[in-house]
Amino acid sequence: MPAKNCKFIFVTGGVVSSLGKGITAASIALLLRQRGYRVTMQKLDPYLNVDPGTMSPFQHGEVYVTDDGTETDLDLGHYERFAGLKCNRNSNYTAGMIYSSVIAREREGGYLGKTVQVIPHITDEIKKAVLSQAEGDYDIAITEVGGTAGDIEGLPFLEALRELGQDLGPENVLCIHLTLIPYLSASGELKTKPSQQSASILRNIGIIPDILICRTERSLEEEHFRKLSMFCNVPRRAVIEEKDVENSIYEVPVELAAQKLDELILDKLGLPLNELDLEQWNAMLQRAIHPSGETVRIGVVGKYMGLQDSYKSIFEALRHGGISNDVPLDVTGIEAEELEGGNTELLQGLDGILVPGGFGYRGIEGKVEAVEFARENDIPFLGICLGMQCAVIETARNLAGMPEANSSEFSPDCSNPVIHLMEEQKTVTQKGGTMRLGLYPCVLLDGSKAIETYGQKNISERHRHRFEFNNEYREMLEENGLIYSGVSPDGTLVEIIERSDHPWFVACQFHPEFTSTPLEPNPLFNAFISAAKRRTRV
Ligand code: GLN
Question: Ligand 1: does its nearest atom lie under 6 Å from the Cβ of 396?
């Protein structure tokens, strides 16, 4: 059960998706935390997949992984990066998860004799999920609902929130609705009608928004505020403008605070207005907006480059490294397939090359080309998960005389499977939540770049993989320059490799991008950008 005094904030969206609801909710969380409140956050996703782990990054952006190994929606990355909180398995529920637990209970006879229905059984399960995030000592629990008001699949979620408003009492619940104010260039006008209609959809469901946040490219005029207040049925001071920020998404909380959104929220929830401390955040923002160093050019070689969200945490973590190194970054997404056949001109002029994680054969040959280029040209290289596996394949093929070397993921009958399926994965048949997931400890080698980077011997990082370094090749690849600078505590699993003959070539089996925040960049990203920066200086 949630703490007795815990207040709930529901964040819904209207008009269109991709409005930045996650960033807005996360910004609110940051402001409330910086006013001394204990905040927890959660995302409800109305799609039927049981978790986002089985969805292509093209569909829904990256799959974000929490400490406890839950595969989640990428918005949880914003929650952790902005608000500095740690999400867990209660932080993301999908309709698929809700329905499957109700159906499983029905099969076990849990509803014996009753007709199982969307209302009350599905809605009760949703309410349980919402309350579950606030277990423990929290003052404020924020629940963001995916999709837009009016989506058929989202209706049970909104109904559950409406009911929770009754269960918990209006003084304990606040509804924030985020909409788009489109600008019509033909008539040169900002239009409020879609937002009016969206608020009206919510009213039909029985939810009256307390606060309306308006995403817009241009500043609203007083007449827009008045119209929105009147027709969306919210007081004038509860109509908040959220204009596209100019330089950095980390400006959003500051912009919202300038409009006193956090004060309004606390006022409406009847909570004391403690002092807001944004000193550290503002200092970080100043460095982000006005870096003093020269531009560092980074290439990210992946296969889902068409959608920035596919590598969301990677791009953010790079940004964090840029901020802490006080340099502007020029990050280019490079389609791995375009590098195939030695077509490396796209890599010219880069100060650092990053090969991120991924699944499936497409793009692998190009990624291996990128590793070779970085290694041969002394370009700082960071390989992540699949990126580390590609680095191992590259050494095996190009230095250790095994041109056929591969991962058994791509070539199951390969004669030199330098990367192979983990033992524990051999019996796994189900998809979704079945990989090696979440935090695992790793011990770093004295004298290595890894230990120099982390400044400590023992670390823990988040994982998401099925394949691993094949230990049969350890010695042979060591003779060809690989250093195993991070291994599992029992020594059996290679977690970090680096090269002895290169200025900065580090690759890891885990995902350092998931734990990086603008205030505390992950050490590997920090060191990678620092190495790339040194390169531009020579
Ligand atoms: N496909 C690889 C594996 O499962 C790498 C996974 C990843 O990069 N996240 O081991």
Answer: no
Residue 528 Cα, ligand 1 centroid: separation in angstroms?
A: 21
Is residue 513 flagged as an active site residue? yes
Residue 1 lies in a domain: no
Quote the CA–CA distance of 488 and 476 in Å, as a whole number.
20
Whether 466 lines ligand 1, by a CB cut-off of 6 Å, is yes
Both tokens of residue 169?
A: 């009492």
* Burial (CB count <10 Å: 0-12, 13-18, 19+), residue 382: buried
pLDDT in tens, 323-374: 999 999 999 999 999 999 888 899 999 999 999 999 999 999 999 999 999 9
Helix (H, G, I), strand (E, B) or coil at 66: coil
Q: How many helices (H) and strands (E) does the chain have?
A: 17, 23
Q: Is the CB of 73 under 6 A from ligand 1?
A: no
Are 254 and 281 within 8 A, CB to CB?
Answer: yes
Tell me the CB-side half-sphere exposure of residue 136, using CA atoms within 13 A: 12
Domain with residue 243: its CATH number is 3.40.50.300
Gap from CA of 307 to ligand 1 centroid (Å) = 19
What's the pTM value of the predicted model, to 2 decimals?
0.93
pLDDT at 538 over 60: no
300 and 381 within one domain: yes
The rounded distance, in Å, linking the Cα atoms of 215 and 9 is: 19
264 to each of 243, 312, 396, how far by Cα in Å? 18, 31, 60
Binned at pLDDT 50, 70 and 90, residue 537 comes out as: low
Query: Is 390 labeled as catalytic in the residue annotation?
Result: no
Query: Residue 157 pLDDT more than 90?
Result: yes
Percent of the chain with pLDDT over 70: 99
Tens-digit pLDDT profile for residues 487-509 = 999 999 999 999 999 999 999 99
Query: Is the CB of 465 inside a 6 Å radius of any atom of ligand 1?
Result: yes
The amino acid sitting at 104 is: A
Q: Same domain, yes or no, for 265 and 326?
A: no
Shortest-distance Cα residue to atom 3 of ligand 1 = 465
Distances (CA, A) of 501 to 291, 373, 375, 454: 31, 14, 9, 21
CB under 8 A, 24+ apart: contacts of 447-450: 448/483, 448/485, 448/486, 448/496, 448/498, 449/485, 449/498, 449/504, 449/506, 449/527, 450/485, 450/486, 450/496, 450/498, 450/506
pLDDT tens figures, 372-401: 999 999 999 999 999 999 999 999 999 999
Tally of CB atoms within 10 A around 32:
25
**Mean pLDDT of all residues belonging to the chain:** 94
463 lines ligand 1 (CB under 6 A): no
Evaluate if residue 429 carries a pLDDT over 90: no
Please indicate whether residue 16 or residue 396 has the higher confidence score (pLDDT).
396
Question: How far lies 42's CA from each of 185, 217, 346, 365, 516, in Å?
Answer: 37, 27, 40, 39, 19
Which of 250, 284, 318 is the endpoint of a domain? Answer: 284
Q: 448 and 347, same structural domain?
A: yes
Q: Has 495 been annotated as catalytic? A: no
